[in-house]
Amino acid sequence: MTGEEARQAFLEWLGQERHGATLTVEAYGADIAGFLGFLAQHLGGEPDLAALAALRQADLRAWLAHEATEGAGNATRARHLSAVRSFFRFLARRHGVDNPALKLIATPRGKPPVPRALATAQACDVTERIAEMSDAASMQARDTALFTLLYGCGLRIAEALALDVRDAPGTTLRVVGKGGKERIVPVLPAVQEAVAAWLALHPDRQPDSPLFLGARGGRLDPAVAQRTLRNFRRLYGLPEHATPHALRHSFATHLLAGGADLRSIQDLLGHASLSTTQRYTAVDEARLVEVWRKAHPRA
Predict the structure, then answer these.
(1) Could you report the per-residue pLDDT of 225-264, keeping only the tens digit for each?
(2) Three-state helix/strand/coil letters over 162-214
(3) pLDDT by residue (tens digit) across 13-24?
(4) Given 80, 142, 249, 271, the catalytic residue
């Protein structure tokens, strides 16, 4: 069986037996075709099953290097490698083609995206004008409290919506983040006032009731908050990355711009690793260079 025949058999299996989506099957087909095309040049002829089983680490590294010279970034090469690994798992199950070299190839690591924060004025617009998206006074107070909390305390939307009435913030707020990790976040007076205004209109102030209620009385769905902000940004001309999570990014970015240190921001965000927090330094590199020039004795 040739490599191309094996590819066709794999795509048929993926589409018919695994019920893969049409676009998924097409993407896998293109990725594996590119891999086989490289091997035909690299090996001097179209590979068959025996040639695929005999591939060495050097051959696979040569393919990944060729991908890089063709302009493929790490994320793209990682996707291509994932497709090839799926192809070889199929070959191992159906045709006994076992190639241990593939297991020794490390997946190219893509650079994490730079957090996309809002400008200070844009973030303030959200917290001060989001109430305009609703006609009901209670919903206006709820939305103002929610988005003020996201920006003022740097919460994830899931963390904010998991709060109960008993968790309503005073001068500090206890937050349960990813993996059940707890952190204590200081609360600005503006956040306290917004939450208090909402609680005054809250229809069910029992301690174990959700702090943020949906229209039907249950816990507010994240999709509702996302839709509210999506409608707001389109109405007021905010960028498309103006999402609830962008308010968390804005919280961290604006703290960094104001002189806060990374360790403090790490604690406030609940990041397990400082390297995650360090992504925010890329947002305002020019400001950091200016701080260095003013502060370093040899600058």
Answers:
(1) 999 999 999 999 999 999 999 999 999 999 988 889 889 9
(2) CCEHHHCCCCEEEEECHHHCEEEEECCHHHHHHHHHHHCCCCCCCCCCECCEC
(3) 999 988 888 888
(4) 271
Q: Is 280 one of the annotated active-site residues of the chain?
A: yes
Catalytic site residue from 94, 174, 178, 227? 178
Q: What are phi and psi of 90, to 5 degrees?
A: -65, -45
Backbone angles phi, psi at 221, to 5 degrees: -80, 135
Residue 238, CA distances (Å) to 33, 119, 145, 257 in order: 42, 10, 20, 21
Active site residue 80: no
The answer for residues whose C-beta is within 8 angstroms of residue 162's C-beta and 6 or more apart is: 176, 219
Query: Annotated catalytic residue: which of 7, 142, 233, 245?
Result: 245
The answer to whether residues 184 and 172 touch, using CB atoms and an 8 Å cutoff, is yes
Residue ranges of the alpha helices (H) in 96-187? 120-129, 137-153, 157-161
Catalytic residue among 202, 233, 248, 254: 248
Our answer to whether residue 178 is catalytic in this structure is yes
Complete domains list, the chain, with CATH? 3-104 (1.10.150.130), 120-295 (1.10.443.10)
- Report the distance separating Cα 288 and Cα 8, nearest Å: 54
- The pTM score is 0.63
Name every residue whose Cβ is closer than 8 Å to that of residue 190 and which is 6 or more positions away in sequence: 127, 148, 152
Token pair 């003020």 is found at 148
Q: Write down the catalytic residue from 156, 233, 249, 254.
A: 156
Q: Is 248 a catalytic residue?
A: yes
